[in-house]
Amino acid sequence: xxxxxxxxxxxxxxxEASKIHWPSRQETVTTAVFVGLMTLMLAVFFLGIDTLFGxxxxxxxxxx
Length: 64
Description:
Helix content: over 70%
Shape: elongated
Largest sheet: none
Mean pLDDT: 95
Oligomer: single chain
Order of helices and strands: HH
Distance between the termini: 71 Å
Strand content: under 5%
């Protein structure tokens, strides 16, 4: 592998950095709201599943 001079490296870094596409404020807010809603939905779902399994286990243990 050929060595790259520090000047060439910095040119390559600037070239790659100019290709970065940063999301707009609206895209960031929309994504954040979506992630928050999905997290809330999953939390409620897993709370329901955990409660259901807890009830089943309690019922099974009461049979003993």
